[in-house]
């Protein structure tokens, strides 16, 4: 009970040693205590619920919850009988309560003692444990029992197996080909249930930390379906998502290095509606797709011959970096991409077999690739435009619009693709608005904004068609719990004429509040209008169940968006090409034939070479409240 209660604090001297199923076990076992002694249980996922709840007896659970169907799992029957407790008699005594429909046990002898005595509507299920272990009632290993399913059928109506019996996993955490156990069980007339599912466990990398994706692989995948699953998170196993607009985040950057050919191909295969390109500039004036202007974040440049180019450029970031405009496009192609690990503090890696795979794309290549794919649109992100113009001599807005025109995106009716241009800087979108562009202009609000004044929304209305908000601006969190839902989305949609998107969603279970059960699909469902049956707990309701001593201190007042946060001076004109690279970069290209920035930009824009892509996943922006 050390695993699920605070018994070590209440009975520190209670540890004993017992022989269980032929093995010596040391700990605090329930046979040494009565129900009055066992009061406080621990919900191990967050310590804030420790000592909050009582442990329930089976009858207490049935009377309190009144379930239509109950599954009881009985283990260590032989051990209990050795200590004067008869589990067979106990189960037979409670079957009159009516809701018990399934009884499972890893001891076939226990199930045999119930067979013929239990109500016919109760299903007996033999539970398989680790293949190397033995069933103490038969002294046969569970691996041996797998070859005797027809004998098991004479006692039980079904079997329960760990999920890795069906989809084995390699030592480096990738799934292998499925086994034939589902078909073999069905051929023997047995139902088969898969167990050991949880949203916050260790997932094979093939599932991209998506628990729903794992469940789906056990249903009609490979020509078989299990008859049920046993999980710590039942909502995930039964959920269905609506139809929000899904925009990738640097392509499928959850599986491959962001903004590479592999990431974009994977995003398309995973049915993203829109794929995105964050614009950066090279030294020779070529606009490229890359998630960060700092190559330290996206490549192995620190292990390359360019590692001496470290510099600090305050207009971009306070820390040292090696920037895309320090290197030519050919220089960057020498480097290896690097996958992002935004939650590396939790030792949650992403697809380590492909950490450095993929090829970066020029904007022209990205546009060519997206043009014939089944997408509703593309999103182009422009940042640091004022710095690029004043210090590097690059008019990024003009370079982007020219590239879109050359690629045939200037007429949405012929390309059948919506083009969205996103920026955190209003000056970028104002310039595009003044050019009477047909593209959808998307303004990204600052972080931590929970409210917007009418005057600030009026300013945004002058230049934007849509707004992106951080997901924490929709549901306010404190210590991992949601404390309330803001009115920001409603205000933006009613006072403005905006579509509203929320960002950034990640599959890793530690990225979402406790209220969403460690399931990214549950979280996304709460950002769109869904039937009540698909809701999780009431927003802000989970934190109310905490005892006062477990709650976090009161939060600081919410930040309100003001006009001064939105209005910016116009973008400066592009400086002369001679000033294109700041002296802090201190690097001259080894290429003797490198053209000046302007000429290189024209060459890149006219290029229509399509990149060969491969594979991706991970959700980024979701329509909020529509």
From TrEMBL:
<dbReference type="Pfam" id="PF03009">
    <property type="entry name" value="GDPD"/>
</dbReference>
<dbReference type="GO" id="GO:0006629">
    <property type="term" value="P:lipid metabolic process"/>
</dbReference>
<keyword id="KW-0378">Hydrolase</keyword>
<feature type="domain" description="GP-PDE">
    <location>
        <begin position="244"/>
        <end position="535"/>
    </location>
</feature>
<protein>
    <recommendedName>
        <fullName>glycerophosphodiester phosphodiesterase</fullName>
        <ecNumber>3.1.4.46</ecNumber>
    </recommendedName>
</protein>
<dbReference type="InterPro" id="IPR030395">
    <property type="entry name" value="GP_PDE_dom"/>
</dbReference>
<dbReference type="InterPro" id="IPR017946">
    <property type="entry name" value="PLC-like_Pdiesterase_TIM-brl"/>
</dbReference>
<feature type="domain" description="GP-PDE">
    <location>
        <begin position="1"/>
        <end position="241"/>
    </location>
</feature>
<dbReference type="GO" id="GO:0006071">
    <property type="term" value="P:glycerol metabolic process"/>
</dbReference>
<keyword id="KW-0319">Glycerol metabolism</keyword>
<keyword id="KW-0325">Glycoprotein</keyword>
<dbReference type="GO" id="GO:0008889">
    <property type="term" value="F:glycerophosphodiester phosphodiesterase activity"/>
</dbReference>
<keyword id="KW-0732">Signal</keyword>
